[in-house]
Amino acid sequence: MKNLSRLSLVFVIVVILFVSLYFLKGDVKDKDKTSGTKYGISGYVPSNFPNSSINDLNKYWKDINRYSDIYGIHLNWNEVETALNLSKNVKGDTYVLFGFQTPSDWKNSGEVIENIDRILKERKNIKYIGIGNEINLIQSKYPKEFSTFKSEFKKISKHINDNYPNIGVFTSFQYDSLRGKATLMSISQKSNSSLVKEFESDVDFVGYTVYPFLEYGDVNSIPSTYFSDLESITTKPYAITETSWPTQDLEFKGFNFSEEMQSEYIKRILSLPDSKSLIFINIVFLNDTTDWKSGNSSKNPLFDSLGLRYNNGQEKQAFYIWEKRN
Fold first, then answer.
1. What's the domain count of the chain?
2. Cα 225 from chain centre
C-alpha cells in the first residue's frame, strides 16, 4: 500500500508539472489575463521635435522608460532601421505596429515578413507585432482592394505564429469610426463593428485607437458604456494603442479642448476597471507633435496637442496625473 501511495503521489506531481508547463506555453491571451492592464505611451516625439537636440533625445528615452510600462513604435512597414534604433532605447516591453495601408504596400508582404524576422531576432524586448493601423479606415478608402489586405495579413500573421509563438499578433481599428460616431472626421461614418470579427481568427488581440473627442465635446458627455463597449465587440483580448484629448482650443462650437479637459480624460482612463481582457492603454505622444503655441500647426491640428507635455517639454496638468498613476 505504501508503494501504491508513493506511485499516486508521483502521478499527481507529474500531472501538476504537465498542467503548469501547458499553461506557461499559453498564447498571448492566457499570459495577459494574469498580468493586468499596462499603461504606456506610443509614438516617437522628443521635446522640440522635429529639431530635437541630443539632450532632448537623452531625456526623452529616460522619461519613456520611467513613465511607460509599454512603449508603442508606430511606423511604415519598410522603416525597419528606425524600428531597430527606437526599440534599442527601451528597457521594458515594447511593440511595433507596422503601417500596411495601401494596395501598393500589400504587394510587399514578403519584405514585411523579412523585416519582422530581423526585428524579432535582434530585439528581445518586443512583445507584440501589429500589421495595419486603423484598418476600418483602410477598408473605407479601398473597398474593392481590401480583400487583398486581408489575405496578405493572414500570410504575415501565420508566419509570426508559426515561427514566434510567444509574440502576440494584432491589427488596429479606429474605434470611434467603427461605432459610426466620429463627427469631426472628414470622412462619412457608419457603424461597422462586425469587421473586427473577420480578423479574430488571425490575431491574438485587437487594437483600437480611441478618440472620443471626435464626437463628444467634453469628458462628461462620453457615454458610460463607451469604454465597456470595446470589450463587447470581440471575444479576443484588446488594447488601446492610441488615446488622448486635445489641449489646443480650436474654437469648435460645443467642444472643450483644454488642459483641464485633458486632465479629466486622463483621470477617466486611469479609473477604468482593471480588466484581464484589456492588455494595455497607451497615451499617444509624450510631447506635442508641433509647437502650436507659437503658431506652428500640421495639416490636422486636431492631433497637434495630444501630448502630456507641450512640444518644448513643458508639462501639462495631465502629465502630473499620469506620473502619479502607480
1. 2
2. 21
Q: Which of 60, 53, 153, 148 is nearest to 99 (CA)?
A: 153
pLDDT digits (tens, 9 = 90+) for 36-67: 899 999 999 999 999 999 999 999 999 999 99
Query: Residue 1's pLDDT band (boundaries 50, 70, 90)?
Result: very low
Cα–Cα distance, 181 to 188 (Å, whole number): 10
Q: Are residues 21 and 160 in the same domain?
A: no
Q: Judge if 161 and 273 occupy the same domain.
A: yes
- pTM exceeds 0.85, yes or no: yes
Q: Which domain holds residue 77?
A: 35-323
